[in-house]
């Protein structure tokens, strides 16, 4: 394959509902489409910048405008995906390169990774924070999904307990919670003890990141398993969390793409932790890439495309919550199929 070229453009993704978590809300998600072309083939990726970590679509575009690719061989991933590349930009490039390599070899990404697509887990569907009646309406709309993830961390503790109780009163599937750092230690212990009766599968990131001892204090005092998200961006973040959590949420956008996600997964397994493959609010490009890795996980939260009203891409599909991975070469993402 001859010289590689790269192009990056912004993409706006209108959402079905305003998506609110403890830190903020959005009605339109913004990501960046990354295209890497070599000879007659093009690989496509998606960068999903996370504002909390000082990234934006503009910063991704600016990075690639100022930094040419390190080499012209898409198989030289170690050279192309240098650690100093910011995480979102690196993830977008990583996905595009893996897509290009898969197309060059005529194999889907899961096959290149040696994985069995039938082992992809069920995905959860996320219920964002809203007025109680709106949240319950969202639950009714999503009742056909076998797993719901409920965002908490805003409002009084009693209000948060009441909404989970109301959801459990009308939904019999698995329930997961995500506070997105919205509580302190005492609040987390209080609310999770109250919610133990509702058969909660786990709770993500109950307290602010950077305080492993806080997670340990909560885990020691409640029966609901604790999963880290904001506390673990890359594999090297995991050792300080030993003994403090039960699982980790691995996201390509945080880890810097497929290679970073694999490093996190292997590190987590070495520590005896469970693994969830997660996503941001993103299109089918990034969610499909994560789906290819999902057979390595215990849990999946890959509902990004389901939260979007108009996705310009198709790839991963869902059947009663089951993640169905495309078997076309590379990521198997197709462009121009609006729904």
Protein described:
The chain contains eleven helices and 15 strands. By secondary structure, it is α/β, with parallel strands linked by helices. The protein folds into two domains: 103 residues, Enolase-like, N-terminal domain (Enolase-like, domain 1), CATH 3.30.390; 224 residues, Enolase-like C-terminal domain (TIM Barrel), CATH 3.20.20.120. The model has no long low-confidence stretch (mean pLDDT 95).
Topology:
Blueprint: E1 4-21, E2 24-38, E3 41-47, H1 57-66, H2 77-80, H3 87-105, H4 109-112, E4 125-127, H5 132-141, E5 147-151, H6 157-170, E6 174-178, H7 185-195, E7 200-204, H8 212-219, E8 226-228, E9 247-251, H9 252-255, H10 258-270, E10 274-278, H11 284-293, E11 299-300, E12 313-314, E13 317-319, E14 322-324, E15 334-335
Parallel strand pairs: 4-5, 5-6, 6-7, 7-8, 8-9, 9-10, 10-11
Antiparallel strand pairs: 1-2, 2-3, 12-15, 13-14
Helix pairs in contact: 5-6, 6-7, 7-8
Overall average residue pLDDT: 95
Task: Please bin the fraction of helical residues.
Answer: 25-40%
Relevant CATH superfamily of the largest domain: Enolase-like C-terminal domain
For the biggest sheet, the summary is: 8 strands, parallel
Give me the count of strands: 15
Tally of distinct domains: 2
- What is the overall silhouette? globular
Low-confidence stretches: none
First and last CA, distance: 35 Å
CATH topology of the largest domain: TIM Barrel
What is the count of helical runs?
11
The CATH first-level class of the largest domain comes to Alpha Beta
H/E element order: EEEHHHHEHEHEHEHEEHHEHEEEEE
- The fraction of residues assigned to DSSP E strands is 15-25%
């Amino acid at each position: 394959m001859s010289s590689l070229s790269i192009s990056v453009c912004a993409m706006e993704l209108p959402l079905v509902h305003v998506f609110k978590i403890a830190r903020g809300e959005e009605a339109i998600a913004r990501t960046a489409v990354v295209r890497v072309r070599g000879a007659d083939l093009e690989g496509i990726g998606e960068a999903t910048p996370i504002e909390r970590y000082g990234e934006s679509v503009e910063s991704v575009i600016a990075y690639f405008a100022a930094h040419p690719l390190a080499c012209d061989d898409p198989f030289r991933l170690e050279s192309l995906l240098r650690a100093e590349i910011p995480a979102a930009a690196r993830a977008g490039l990583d996905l595009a390169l893996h897509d290009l390599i898969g197309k060059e070899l005529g194999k889907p990404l899961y096959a290149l990774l040696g994985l069995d697509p039938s082992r992809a887990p069920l995905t959860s569907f996320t219920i964002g924070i809203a007025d109680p009646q709106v949240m319950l309406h969202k639950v009714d709309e999503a009742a056909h999904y076998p797993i719901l993830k409920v965002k908490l961390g805003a409002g009084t503790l009693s209000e948060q307990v009441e909404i989970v109780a109301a959801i459990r009163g009308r939904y019999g599937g698995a329930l997961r919670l995500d506070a997105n750092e919205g509580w302190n230690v005492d609040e987390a212990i209080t609310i999770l003890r109250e919610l133990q009766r509702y058969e909660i599968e786990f709770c993500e990131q109950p307290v602010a990141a950077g305080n492993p001892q806080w997670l340990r204090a909560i885990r020691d005092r409640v029966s609901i398993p604790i999963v880290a998200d904001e506390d673990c961006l890359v594999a090297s973040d995991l050792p300080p969390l030993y003994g403090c959590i039960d699982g980790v949420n691995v996201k390509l956008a945080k880890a810097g793409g497929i290679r970073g996600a694999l490093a996190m997964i292997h590190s987590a397994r070495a520590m005896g932790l469970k693994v969830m493959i997660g996503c941001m609010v993103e299109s089918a490009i990034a969610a499909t890439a994560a789906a290819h890795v999902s057979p390595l996980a215990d849990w999946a939260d890959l509902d990004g495309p389901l939260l979007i009203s108009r996705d310009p891409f198709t790839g991963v599909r869902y059947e009663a919550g089951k993640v169905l991975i495309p078997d076309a070469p590379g990521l198997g993402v197709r462009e121009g199929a609006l729904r």
